[in-house]
Amino acid sequence: MSNYPDLPKLKPIPIKERISLFFVSPGHVDVHDGAFVIVDKNGIRKQLPIGGVACLLLEPGTRISHTAVVMAAKVGTLLLWVGQGGVRLYAAGQPGGARADRLLYQADLARDDSTRLKVVRKMYAMRFGEEPPAKRSVDQLRGIEGARVRALYKQLAKQYGVPWKGRKYDPQNWMAGDLPNQCISAATAALYGISEAGILAAGYSPAIGFIHTGKPQSFVYDIADIVKFEEIVPLAFKIAAQKPDNPEREVRLACRDAFRKSRLLKELIPMIEKVLAAGSISLPVPAPEQVLPVIPNEEGLGDAGHRN
């Protein structure tokens, strides 16, 4: 870029304008001649427009260079190191970086029992399309939610003619589950990936949850659960009913198409803001004695949490 001083600095593409996710396996991910490329076992390169992808999932058998990681970080693409089929998460990058004001805002909402309950009630209302029962604690709402979710699983299994013995899986051996559970695990893994990308892009922490807690992705589960039964879980049952030879691949392709059709990425960050706004508190104002940045932050074209 130094040879072209009149050209503007590259900016991240907003999450809402990207494709949702892309799986890589096997292969070597690198940068050649300024392009983000995937090199297969035969040495054939395929370019990937990394700046237009929200989430890149790296499956077993994939290697990635330092240069490629740097490029992904600059354009705000989340990197996830996952198991086969994307059903286990081993590590995650952080493309944008959290914003202090949003982190403090999220933490204040989660730490106060009254604001946390307001957020949980909003999540319940958005998930089921109705207001939750009055005067219920978070634990009571979680119990009501669990009962409704179990009923939804049974209803979908009956609708698609799939044998159902309950949501059962072994985190240490995902493939040990039956076909419907494998499909659901693959579908929710894809949903968790783009949900985490949206949370990070908005400047929030995936770990500070309201219904879920104690996990690095607690808030990811909270947000993903709001929309999980709209398309993703029904899609998993539909594919399970077809008994494909490679269910994980069929599920991931179907999820990719569903995310594109529903424009979930366009709705994700506004949905996060709407959920947190239910707590009815404002973003924290910096204390008078705090020192502002010596070098002011540039205005970016990406989402709130993206690095410039």
Describe the overall structure.
With 308 residues, this protein is α/β, with parallel strands linked by helices. Helices cover 45% and strands 12% of the residues. It is built from eight helices and eight strands. A four-stranded mixed beta sheet has the order 1-5-7-8. A four-stranded mixed beta sheet has the order 4-3-2-6, with helices on one face. The two termini are 16 Å apart.
Give a quick rundown of the structure:
The protein is built from eight helices and eight strands, in the order E-E-E-E-E-E-H-E-E-H-H-H-H-H-H-H. With 308 residues, it is an alpha/beta fold.
> In CATH, what is the homologous superfamily of the largest domain?
CRISPR-associated endonuclease Cas1, C-terminal domain
Which fold name corresponds to the CATH topology of the largest domain?
A: Four Helix Bundle (Hemerythrin (Met), subunit A)
Looking at how many chains there are and whether they match, the oligomeric state comes to single chain
- For the secondary structure, the number of strands is 8
Number of domains: 2
Based on the structure given, which CATH architecture of the largest domain is correct?
Up-down Bundle
What is the strand arrangement across the widest sheet?
A: 1-5-7-8
Q: Determine the N-to-C terminus distance.
A: 16 Å
Averaged pLDDT: 85
CATH class of the largest domain: Mainly Alpha
What is the rounded Rg?
A: 21 Å
Low-confidence segments, given as residue ranges, are none
